[in-house]
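Suppose a colleague, Dr. K., hands you the sequence of a protein chain of 133 amino acids and asks what its three-dimensional shape might be. Before reaching for any lab equipment, you can write down a predicted structure in token form. Begin with the sequence itself:
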Amino acid sequence: MEFEDAADPIKWLRIAEKDLIRVDRALDDDDAEAAGFWLQQAVEKLLKGFLLSKGWKLKKTHDLESLVVDAVAYDRALDEYHDVCEKITNYYVLQRYPPPPGGDLTVAEVRQALGDVRGLVETLRRQITRQPR
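The predicted structure, expressed as tokens, is then:
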């Protein structure tokens, strides 16, 4: 993505869609850490795309909790996803650092989180594609 494209919500949506495909592939391969990482990436990009469509200034962050708080300013219904976004943010860290003792991520946990965030994903898809560009 060229720098001038970084403010285009549709570009963020397209990359997020690829990441969601990667989540499914990693789950099929029983690779929980990769699936969790790609889930975090997909939700991050969807939230950024949504926020950019509202005129938000792009921030360099991977913290879904912070992004969903910003998104709630535009759509209060998104607040219900605060807890799952906090959980999924940790998947990014688990892919990058050794897990704490007993902190291994499971495929079942990622599948649950994917189900818990499905409504957010669908809402953000609709709202991003509805924006005039």
